[in-house]
């Protein structure tokens, strides 16, 4: 498959000094479709292929419909603006072909975490340390999105636990990177800029209270009347995501004990009563460090 392709300045280690902002004609070997739309709904998300470029495996994402071109371009702009340790590495893109190429992570999304850690090669790493470090990575990514170079961004593709987990990739080092950035509206209270994550009514206790229809069952949902919200809606979800990430490993109960107070603050009904993601991150890192010291001290006593 040949196409006009723009390389990212943040490309992988196999970039060369000749890469610039001008398109180059390049060849991709598309071998395996990793994801696709389900049979009972249109493929809103891109199809992702395991591809090869210059001897390196990459993930090649292509849209099935130009209807989602604006989402595609927004996702590319966010990937460009947010390149760093918390975000999947961008190799390049082709706006004409609605195609995006990123670093390939064979372990897939966080949805496969338990299955991955159940494999024989990873079983010894299924510990509270590994799982809490993933939770730290998750909160660090939120903190970066909320206070990063692209402004204050809300992670809108997070209206359920599974949807949230699908936004993150698991690296070979069992760390997390954000992969899907095509739904990151900017919020800024000083400019009256608030987010609404889609035009449909959200339900359930995973989403924050301010994301629920506030006018009761007597009044039909209306996107026009639905109030906006800010990045604290992401903070509300942290305890539920961490609870899932921790699973039922030995030591997990102690992690939950240490995080109890900050999680209570995350679940306050009023958004302004919740901590920022950066405040939560400080607590998470402190708990990880202190529990690590306690574990090391216990081993020394044996």
UniProtKB/TrEMBL annotation:
It is a single-pass type II membrane protein. One of its GO terms (molecular function) is ATP binding. It comes from the Eukaryota. Its main location: endoplasmic reticulum. GO terms for cellular component: endoplasmic reticulum membrane. One of its GO terms (biological process) is protein O-linked glycosylation. It is found in: Endoplasmic reticulum membrane. It is an enzyme of class 2 (transferase). It catalyses: 3-O-[beta-D-GalNAc-(1->3)-beta-D-GlcNAc-(1->4)-alpha-D-Man]-L-Thr-[protein] + ATP = 3-O-[beta-D-GalNAc-(1->3)-beta-D-GlcNAc-(1->4)-(O-6-P-alpha-D-Man)]-Thr-[protein] + ADP + H(+). The keyword ATP-binding applies. It holds the Pfam family PK_Tyr_Ser-Thr. Residues 28-302 form the Protein kinase domain. The keyword Transferase applies. Keywords: ATP-binding, Endoplasmic reticulum, Kinase, Membrane, Nucleotide-binding, Signal-anchor, Transferase, Transmembrane, Transmembrane helix. Protein O-mannose kinase that specifically mediates phosphorylation at the 6-position of an O-mannose of the trisaccharide (N-acetylgalactosamine (GalNAc)-beta-1,3-N-acetylglucosamine (GlcNAc)-beta-1,4-mannose) to generate phosphorylated O-mannosyl trisaccharide (N-acetylgalactosamine-beta-1,3-N-acetylglucosamine-beta-1,4-(phosphate-6-)mannose). Phosphorylated O-mannosyl trisaccharide is a carbohydrate structure present in alpha-dystroglycan (DAG1), which is required for binding laminin G-like domain-containing extracellular proteins with high affinity. This is Protein O-mannose kinase.
